[in-house]
Amino acid sequence: MTIYIDLIILSNFLLDYSLITYTGIIANEKIKFIRIFLATLFALSSLSLFFIQIQLIFIILRLLYSFIIILIAFSFVSLRKYIKNILLFYFVNYVMAGIITSYDFRFTSNAINIDLKQPTTWYLLIISFLIANILTYIYKVIEENHAFYKFNILDIRFRFLNKDYEVKGLIDTGNKTVSHGDNIPVIFIDKNIINTDIDEIYLLKNKVKFTYILMNTVKDSYITLAFKPENFGVVIDDQYFEKEVYLAIGQNIKNKDQSFQAILNSKILT
Fold first, then answer.
1. What's the predicted TM-score (pTM) here?
2. Could you give the strand order of the β-sheet that contains 186-190, starting from the edge strand earlier in sequence?
3. Are strands 221-227 and 163-172 parallel, antiparallel or unpaired?
């Protein structure tokens, strides 16, 4: 019987990489390609275990390999999380690997049963490998977006004409607009938040302090109205901080998922 070592190594690499990646995705772990790759290389070395004839030693070493694979692939957070990942790794091995390949992971045999001559086997391995990478990419994009929103979108609260408003604001490092003279930061809010037309006459009638600020854009410069709310605060790390600001109506505060309705001045973080 001819044994194709290179094909065995390649098929195991594709499978191990896919299974470790699936484990990380299901376990909601932070996936790093370098750690997955190193864990896969270590998993490949477990092929040497199939030369061991003593069944008990084989089983013990297989378990130890699994423990180390998880340690390499994912950061250790807690013992509970670590054990959960190990159990999940075995679940993915026995359930999903049994679906996508003809591997036999039973502890009753020291043999790997895989028909490398069947094109279907390779199709499944390659498709699984590609899907694992695609899912990882999607997962990382979602995680990056989540991290972006977590650190760059804050809850803000303000009172204007005895009415309370609570919206989400995006920290914009490019927004350095301040009022002339007293250098009070200006926050731009969506025109739909305060459902009324705010102009100089309206503010004078309601005795609201206001000023005019010069706005410079790439295309042109213009003057816009900014007014003071009765109070304004931002929530940072579950703590509420009051800030002195001016509010201005933003004309181009657009985002697809409506995740924020205000453009914050980075100066309010100091």
1. 0.51
2. 210-216, 221-227, 246-250, 186-190, 262-265, 163-172, 153-160, 231-236, 239-242
3. unpaired
